[in-house]
Design brief:
The structure holds two protein chains of two kinds.
Chain A: H1 2-36, H2 43-61, H3 72-93, H4 101-121, E1 136-138, H5 139-142, E2 151-153, H6 154-176, H7 178-188, H8 190-195, H9 200-222, H10 232-247, H11 252-272, H12 278-292, H13 296-307
Antiparallel strand pairs in A: 1-2
Helix pairs in contact in A: 1-6, 1-7, 1-9, 1-10, 1-11, 2-3, 2-4, 2-9, 2-10, 3-4, 3-9, 6-7, 6-9, 7-9, 10-11, 10-12, 11-12
Chain B: H1 6-16, H2 24-49, H3 57-75, H4 82-101, H5 108-126, H6 128-131, E1 137-138, H7 147-169, H8 171-181, H9 183-188, H10 193-219, E2 221-222, H11 224-227, H12 230-244, H13 251-268, H14 276-290, H15 294-297, H16 299-309
Antiparallel strand pairs in B: 1-2
Helix pairs in contact in B: 2-7, 2-10, 2-12, 2-13, 3-4, 3-5, 3-10, 3-12, 4-10, 7-8, 7-10, 8-10, 12-13, 12-14
The chains are: A mainly alpha, B mainly alpha.
């Protein structure tokens, strides 16, 4: 009985820790989606690039991946702004039959990034051998009489905490600063924002940069606990959009909840169904969200608010 | 010369082509080009005419291929029967998908198609008893010679071409274009948009399944990483249409020839060969920025560009 509870709680804890990082990935995606109304299908590839940056910073200069949080996201911010300014914006101006050209464009960018990474870094699996990778805390160390034993891996906990801090900083930025308010205004109603004097084109560029920086931060947080290979990007792109759908398109709070839900669900499938099926579990969530809750978690929150 | 004879001359040329003593490598490239043209036309029906961009046609391609391969593998039935079996299987998948996703607006369809391709790959990798997982399925090819395969795929390509022309000239075709141009207006005129989008998806899926079944028969070997691949099947299908021309009848043919030749040529280069996906990606980006309607669709634009340069 206690053993089963222990397994369940442990799965829940690792799911939540994973979910915190997923949330960070999802927020970046949902920001871009909200402001530009396009799906960024190169999101995971951007994370892969950020992870390689962190990897090389560690290998060449011995910079700890958590320290590279100060270096890599700004670089990726500039990179994302470049993509938006020089590739996506020109496409927005061109007239074409298909409305989804920008989406196909992001797929093209993703292909290039992934293939270049394979060419330059080979498709070997890599990881950063940080000293604290296997440090673990136990619940009984903190609370001697605890009936269940839970373990907390140090890098997972640190990554989760940092993800929470970054999310709070983002919330502050979006809620309190002028630029943040302009971004939200652009997401709500592009034309109205333009009439109020918001430079919409510039907001797009900043948003794409911001989304890239967020996913880059997630990459830095992932690298002490995960391994790295060029094809990893597409996997995380899929994760990002499952979170976005689950949370509700364009909703930041939805993305946080969606990320946590998906993290828990994935670690439950891995424990109770089998490791190989964890990715399939992702799609079960996705299809279930599409059928039963097309507006995502955000629509539930909204309904509650309107009910009052 | 009268313009109306041109199609017959072209078809005649395609019919006699293998009799000219071409090397088997050239014939292989022709077969691949015809296969991609067929797949491209199928994608074009849904993506180009009906405006529903799919990133997961590998799902239907792979289903068709596995239908053919598993019959031959488990029951020793001729893999050509896969063409028949794939119809209900692929259509059922398309209908379920359509009724779940196509009733929603926005990016859901794009995301769902991406997901379905990946999901089927994971299933095919994990259901080892049925599909042999990553080992793949190996069957004996019916003919050693390439000529018969050429005629099979030529018939399939021409059949698809005329079928799609027929559909686009019918009431359905106008419905599809109306949905692409303005879904609200289409709905207000009494078109059941969900139903017609699903019909377009189902037809497109079944044809794609046929190309998958043909691939199995022709290549003799498949594995989940090949036939359910996002980069090598789904995206190539999109590229064939984007390069050739979205929503043009001949676009996929032009695109397929260009893409197959380009792929073969780049892969044969010594160093750059491994980077063919980079070059494809760059090509895709360039096409989208400068020729968003493809070579055939933007032909007037290209002509204008060259006319401006030549006189002076």
């Amino acid at each position: 009985m206690w053993v089963q509870a222990e397994v369940f709680l442990q799965t829940l804890v690792s799911g939540l820790l994973l979910g915190g990082l997923y949330a960070l990935i999802g927020i970046g995606m949902t920001l871009i989606l909200g402001v530009m109304k396009i799906i960024n299908l190169t999101h995971g590839q951007l994370m892969m690039v950020a992870m390689y940056l962190a990897f090389w910073l560690f290998t060449l200069f011995g910079i700890d991946p958590y320290l590279s949080l100060l270096i890599v996201p700004p670089l990726m911010f500039a990179f994302g702004m470049g993509i938006q300014k020089f590739l996506v914006n020109p496409v927005l101006r061109v007239e074409s039959i298909l409305p989804h050209n920008q989406v196909i464009l992001t797929v093209g960018i993703g292909m290039v990034l992934q293939n270049l990474a394979t060419l330059f870094f080979t498709s070997d699996y890599r990881s950063i051998p940080v000293g604290y990778a296997s440090t673990v805390w136990y619940l009984t160390d903190l609370w001697r009489d605890s009936p269940v034993e839970l373990s907390f891996s140090l890098p997972w906990v640190v990554s989760f905490m940092l993800a929470v801090v970054i999310t709070l900083m983002l919330w502050f930025f979006l809620a309190k600063t002028d630029t943040g308010k302009s971004i939200r205004a652009t997401a709500q109603d592009r034309d109205a924002a333009m009439l109020m004097g918001v430079h919409v084109g510039w907001m797009r560029v900043i948003t794409f940069g911001l989304g890239s920086a967020l996913v880059a931060a997630a990459g830095c947080l992932f690298i002490p606990i995960y391994y790295l290979f060029p094809a990893l990007g597409s996997q995380f792109t899929l994760i990002a959009f499952v979170i976005t759908i689950l949370g509700g398109l364009g909703s930041t709070i939805g993305a946080i909840l969606g990320g946590l839900l998906l993290g828990v669900f994935e670690s439950m499938t891995a424990t109770y169904v089998g490791m190989g099926w964890a990715p399939a579990g992702r799609f079960v969530v996705f299809v279930a969200a599409l059928v039963f809750l097309p507006g995502g978690v955000a629509s539930l929150l909204k309904r509650r608010k309107l009910g009052k | 010369m009268n313009k109306k004879y041109i199609p017959f001359i072209l078809i005649g040329a395609l019919l006699v082509l293998p009799q000219l003593g071409l090397s088997s490598y050239v014939l292989h490239i022709l077969i691949l080009a015809l296969m991609w043209a067929t797949a491209g036309m199928a994608w074009n029906l849904l993506g180009g005419y009906c405006g529903q961009v799919s990133f997961g046609h590998a799902a239907f391609f792979g289903m068709g291929a596995y239908c053919a391969g598993l019959l031959a593998h488990h029951y020793d039935i001729t893999p050509w029967l896969g063409f028949l079996v794939s119809v209900p299987v692929v259509a059922a998948l398309a209908l379920v998908m359509g009724f779940i996703v196509l009733r929603l607006r926005g990016p859901y369809f794009v995301l769902a198609t991406l997901a379905i391709g990946e999901l089927l790959r994971i299933i095919a990798e994990n259901l080892v008893d049925l599909t042999q997982g990553n080992l793949g399925v190996l069957i004996r090819r019916t003919w050693v010679d390439k000529d018969p395969y050429y005629y099979v795929i030529l018939a399939l390509a021409l059949g698809t071409y005329f079928l799609i022309q027929r559909i686009m000239a019918s009431r359905w075709g106008y419905y599809f274009v109306a949905i692409r141009e303005d879904q609200d207006a289409a709905e207000s005129l009494g078109i059941n948009t969900t139903l017609y989008k699903t019909i377009a998806l189902a037809i497109s899926a079944v044809i794609t399944g046929f190309t998958g079944a043909f691939y199995m028969n022709y290549m003799g070997y498949i594995d989940p990483q090949i036939v359910f691949s996002l980069g090598d099947i789904s995206i190539v299908m999109i590229m064939v249409v984007m390069v050739g021309g979205v929503a043009t009848p001949l676009g996929p043919w032009v695109g397929a020839v260009i893409m197959v030749i380009l792929a073969e040529w780049i892969r044969s280069l010594p160093v750059i060969g491994t980077g063919y996906q980079t070059l494809f990606g760059i090509l895709l980006i360039v096409i989208i920025i400068f020729l968003p309607n493809g070579l055939v669709g933007d032909l007037p634009k290209i002509k204008r560009f060259f006319k401006k340069e030549v006189p002076a």
